[in-house]
Write a structure and sequence with these properties.
By secondary structure, the chain is α/β, with parallel strands linked by helices. The protein has ten helices and 39 strands. It has two domains: 225 residues, Spore Coat Polysaccharide Biosynthesis Protein SpsA, Chain A; 191 residues, Hexapeptide repeat proteins (UDP N-Acetylglucosamine Acyltransferase, domain 1).
């Protein structure tokens, strides 16, 4: 190992009791990603040879969540000895024997740190030939944070936790962000000397700083340019605030890339979403997960897209869609509900009060209004009349409807799957189609209309309807 080798330890063993949640704190989400997921995504850009996550409370939930997205991360279990110092100690022991590079310690509940900040921290540490370098910030209200205590020359002497601070120390506004870089050899030596002699009875990683200074080793501090990036998440108030800060960053980034966001305050865009130049996002719109939007598309207002693809120049308004593909030049909405598996072809239309699911709708085809299309394959140039329904479920199994090119259905058609309509076929209004329809055929459900004279007066005597009917008869 060279001295420029880097190992990253992410602390994710805390209980997070102030979240008051069955979910581990580090798995709560902002911007479409867990708190610890944000930390690991940032760490991935630093080129570390080793990345470890220390777990303890609700460890199985945390491990399960990380195993899919971050399979190369090494999981390290903390034992019953409490404290951040112990967490770092077990992680350090899990590194390959002889590792003698630098160790970057991150907190799994500090999700807003940016790659540039951490690179500057590591570079500054190496430039100063320091045994330890910590990230600090200046807060107007430092309550709850450990204070950085400097000597008269401005040199970092130690870190004092809130509960252990005296009046003078508590008045200090420079706080410890809980992010450190250590020289591995120095860290290994000092971790063996820390004790649980403090108000919490824990092994604090912060005590290493004072021990290093006591041995006259160099300890440096890098002041964070963006105070918000150092915020840790301890409760749901802080979770919401971090989510707001992250979203503001994301929205501004896309605006600078050529996206028009009409109202940033009501627009939410997840970190994994990708927007092209000349996209327009109208108010109260949520672009979530891995949604992608092509150039010239307009989305919103009042729209939520989750893991969707929106094609070039498409228009999607007042729509809720998940795992759907919307083709170039297509229009969706208002008040449309696109469920997973919906694929709308180029220049197609899904209109007002339409629900789709597992449906392939061909180029130029239209489902204009008041319809349900589920488990269906629809060809090109199709027009489904108002209130057309694919009856796909027989109370036991789902069945598929196939509709050929240029099919037009009349209003209130029910297609009872499995059924196929050939190219160019048509249905009459109110048709219930139970059998395949050949190409070019007209399917109708026709029964003679029967009028029962006097039924209302006989069966609903004394009602307004019966009185009106009687008056009409007299007038005739």
């Amino acid at each position: 190992m060279t001295q420029n080798s880097l190992a990253i330890i992410v602390l994710a063993a805390g209980q997070g009791t102030r979240m008051k949640s069955r979910r581990p704190k580090v798995l709560h989400e902002i911007g479409g990603r867990s708190l610890v997921g944000h930390v690991l995504a940032t760490a991935a850009h630093l080129g570390a040879e080793h990345v470890e996550v220390v777990v303890r409370h609700e460890r199985d939930q945390v491990v399960d969540a990380l195993s899919t997205q971050y399979p190369d991360v090494v999981i390290v279990d903390q034992d019953e000895i409490p404290g951040t110092g112990r967490a770092v100690q077990v992680a350090l022991d899990a590194l390959p024997e002889g590792f003698d590079g630098d160790v970057l310690v991150l907190s799994g509940d500090v999700p807003l740190l940016e790659v540039e900040t951490l690179r500057a921290l590591v570079d500054g540490h190496r430039a100063a030939a320091a045994s330890a370098t910590l990230l600090s910030a200046l807060l107007d209200d430092p309550t709850g944070y450990g204070r950085i205590i400097r000597n008269a020359d401005g040199v970092v002497e130690r870190i004092v936790e809130q509960k252990d601070a005296d009046e003078a120390e508590a008045a200090v506004h420079e706080i410890n962000a809980g992010i450190y870089v250590f020289r591995a050899a120095s860290l290994r030596t000092q971790l063996g000397r820390i004790t649980q002699d403090n108000a919490q009875g824990e092994l604090y990683i912060t005590d290493v700083i004072g021990l290093l200074r006591g041995d006259a080793e160099t300890v440096a501090a890098e002041l964070a340019d963006d105070v918000a990036s150092t915020f840790g998440i301890n409760d749901r108030v802080q979770l919401a605030e971090a989510g707001r800060v992250l979203n503001q960053r994301i929205v501004r980034r896309w605006q600078r890339e050529g996206v028009t966001v009409v109202d940033p305050l009501t627009t939410w865009i997840d970190d994994d979403a990708v927007l092209a130049p000349d996209v327009t996002i109208l108010p109260n719109t949520h672009i979530l997960r891995a949604t992608t939007i092509a150039p010239g598309a307009t989305v919103g207002p009042d729209t939520t897209l989750v893991d969707c693809e929106v094609g070039e120049d498409a228009v999607v308004k007042r729509t809720d869609a998940t795992l759907a593909v919307i083709g170039a030049g297509a229009t969706v909405g208002p008040f449309s509900f696109l469920r997973p598996g919906t694929v709308l072809g180029a220049n197609g239309k899904i209109g007002a009060y339409v629900e789709t699911k597992n449906a392939e709708i061909g180029e130029g085809s239209k489902v204009p209004h008041l319809s349900y299309v589920g488990d269906a394959t629809i060809g090109r140039g199709v027009n489904l009349g108002a209130s057309t329904i694919t009856a796909n479920y027989d109370d036991v199994d789902k069945h598929r409807t196939e509709i050929g090119d240029e099919v037009h259905t009349g209003s209130h058609t029910v297609l009872v799957a499995p059924v196929r309509l050939g190219a160019g076929a048509k249905t009459g209004a109110g048709a219930v189609v139970r059998k395949d329809v050949p190409a070019g055929a007209l399917a109708m459900s026709v029964a003679p209309q029967r009028n029962v004279e006097g039924w209302v007066e006989k069966n609903r005597a004394g009602t307004g309807a019966a009185d009106a009917a009687a008056r009409s008869r007299t007038a005739e």
